[in-house]
């Protein structure tokens, strides 16, 4: 049982708990509808109401001692992958431990089904309302719960703490808007923050923000970004070979995870590059493939030819833009090209994960808007593994430099991989912090 005490619940928390209990059936209809659209079964949809679809395991060490069941929650794919990277590091230190991973999206569930280890199972997370959370906790009875990045569920946290579950916030990252919103409710913010036995922030600045919101300072530890320790993205070798064959000797660059307002700049940069390198191909992978029709219109408006992967279009010698409007293939694209522009950074989005690019052996180009990776990009840029651009002309210049200077490109690729490896190695200390603060029974701590 956790010995940490929290302050008395403020009135706003009681109101929130009452409202979420009343609205849970309506919220369920909405989330169930989204899961139905993705082909999720009715039984699995009910996991959102706390009804399990798998039995609870009984974890035991090889010598028969009880082992912990650890619950990780990551809202979507990125957070779930960060959770998997931490599970990979914790498992060897906790022999016999079992892991429960929850998330809210069908895409994350599909990804986890492919990448989870044998001692891990996935469930959709219960809605943050009293009845679903009670059902969930009654069945799973986790020893500890680790919430990844930014989701703070007051009802879930309070119910788990009352059940004796030790709590961690890991890879903590709150947006400026979220921090401002919590600061406007200081009593509730402090009440929520005090539930955690340990809070691991991505950088010192975020750590201070958590303290400002009411987290006890002795429980807050900057720990780097867990995504540095994620396993490399999968590569479809058959698909890779097929696209390589269609490209032949043509040079290529990749623009990945682009958002509305960025494709115009990427396309303009590519059009400028074609003036210098007429056979250059751009592989464009929007963050949201459902925007494909919109992006194709932008490409055609610029007077460029396009082939659409989801339609099975061939990548011919005349194809100037290959639109990769599919899911789950970015690992293949990063293996295809050593030059990758990561979107969400020329628009005010916060950037996307450069670790995946560097692990694939590519160098990174980013816009200035990488606030979600504020602890990652500066050392990556300082080391020469990434370069920051601001618009179409500077993007074209960065790509042109690496296209025409193999030495500079190879130096950048090596630097990018080195920064990621160094940050991944530093995550070993995160495991020690969690084992200590969550009182996990590792062989080194068992009496």
From TrEMBL:
Gene Ontology MF terms in the entry: glycosyltransferase activity
High-level lineage: Bacteria, Pseudomonadati, Pseudomonadota, Alphaproteobacteria, Rhodobacterales
Name the record gives this protein: 3-deoxy-D-manno-octulosonic acid transferase
UniProt catalytic activity: lipid IVA (E. coli) + CMP-3-deoxy-beta-D-manno-octulosonate = alpha-Kdo-(2->6)-lipid IVA (E. coli) + CMP + H(+)
Keyword Transcription: no
Region annotation (Disordered) ranges: 39-64
Biological role stated in the UniProt entry: Involved in lipopolysaccharide (LPS) biosynthesis. Catalyzes the transfer of 3-deoxy-D-manno-octulosonate (Kdo) residue(s) from CMP-Kdo to lipid IV(A), the tetraacyldisaccharide-1,4'-bisphosphate precursor of lipid A.
Record-annotated 3-deoxy-D-manno-octulosonic-acid transferase N-terminal domain positions: 44-228
Stored InterPro entries: Glycos_transf_N, Glycos_transf_N_sf, Kdotransferase
Keywords from the UniProt entry: Cell membrane, Glycosyltransferase, Lipopolysaccharide biosynthesis, Membrane, Signal, Transferase
Pathway: Bacterial outer membrane biogenesis; LPS core biosynthesis
Localization: Cell membrane
Keyword Glycosyltransferase on entry: yes
Domain of life from the UniProt record: Bacteria
Entry's family note: Belongs to the glycosyltransferase group 1 family.
Encoding gene, per UniProt annotation: waaA
Annotated signal peptide: 1-21
The protein's Enzyme Commission number: 2.4.99.12
